[in-house]
Write a structure and sequence with these properties.
- The chain has a 7-stranded mixed sheet, with helices on both faces.
- The protein is globular.
- The protein folds into 2 domains: 162 residues, Rossmann fold (3-Layer(aba) Sandwich); 77 residues, DNA polymerase, domain 1.
- It starts with a strand and ends with a helix.
- With 248 residues, it is of the alpha/beta class.
- Helix content is 41%, strand content 11%.
- The model has no long low-confidence stretch (mean pLDDT 96).
- It binds xylulose-1,5-bisphosphate and magnesium ion (MG).
- Magnesium ion (MG) binds next to loops.
């Protein structure tokens, strides 16, 4: 029986990476006097690693190997990450990043039907709060029974830890829930927790491997903006509704 929906945030609820996180990272680098600059193409490669601090380490290990590392590199990365979170939440506060098509409608429908809602993401908790507040309103934070985010678990996606943690916290079986993801790391994580997963792709994740997904769509669709099915069977539906989810 379908009891709960668990949502990823970045790339799933909103297209936050290219014009949000990436821009905020660059602002933090500049403010710290670093000449690091992550263009759109490089950022696509850096998305192989989830988590901002982990991503900066990955960048230095693979794309900026000549950078002279200070002894306190991890402290420096933590400071940069804090600064980046400030820039990112400010960007969201300006309202520049909307929810993806169908997200608000589906959340509303789920709430009306009494389904339980949760979030499972690798991003920082402040970022989730800022996105929800600026798109669905302040009260929407309480719509989500569990907001599992950031360093709450030691291993970020593709590890299943964040989804395992969420299920445990909600005392739910994976079989009674659905997960919503946009990326390969995301589905590896959700499927690692045995969750059936609905994928909505974005420009950075179009060619990811989504083997095992319940369905892969370009977005969740609105009545006047039908989704396109990439793989799977939408059974004549043109937007993600509870009826379609129950069939999946
Ligand atoms: C999201 C991410 C995050 C953000 C940055 O992955 O990869 O790392 O890019 O977040 P997912 P922080 O959608 O799979 O959860 O900088 O706050 O760590
Ligand atoms: Mg994502």
């Amino acid at each position: 029986m379908l009891k709960a929906l668990i949502f990823d945030v970045d790339g799933t609820l909103a297209d936050t990476e290219k014009d949000g996180h990436r821009v905020a990272f660059n602002s933090a680098f500049k403010a710290a006097g670093l000449d690091w600059e992550w263009d759109e193409e490089l950022y696509g490669k850096l998305l192989a690693v989830t988590g901002g601090k982990e991503r900066m380490n990955y960048y230095l290990d693979n794309f900026n190997t000549t950078f002279e590392r200070p002894d306190n590199l991890q402290e420096m990365i933590a400071e940069l990450h804090k600064s980046k979170t400030g820039y990112y939440t400010k960007l969201l506060g300006e309202g520049s990043i909307p929810l993806r098509p169908g997200v608000k409608r589906l959340i509303q429908e789920a709430r009306d039907a009494g389904l339980r809602l949760a979030i499972a993401t690798t991003t920082t908790p402040e970022n989730v709060t800022a996105l929800l507040e600026n798109t669905l309103g302040k009260e929407s934070i309480d719509w989500f029974e569990v907001i599992a985010a950031g360093d709450i678990v030691p291993a970020k996606k593709p590890a299943s830890d964040i989804y395992d943690w969420t299920l445990k916290e909600m005392k739910l079986d994976a079989a009674d829930c659905l997960a919503f993801e946009d990326s390969e790391n995301g589905i590896l994580s959700s499927q690692g927790a045995d969750l059936k997963t609905i994928i909505t792709v974005n420009a950075y994740t179009l060619d990811h491997d989504f083997t095992g997904a319940a369905i892969v769509l370009n977005h969740m669709g609105e009545p006047d903006m039908p989704f396109s099915v990439i793989t799977g069977n939408a059974d004549g539906h043109s937007c993600v509704t509870l009826e379609l989810l129950k069939q999946l």
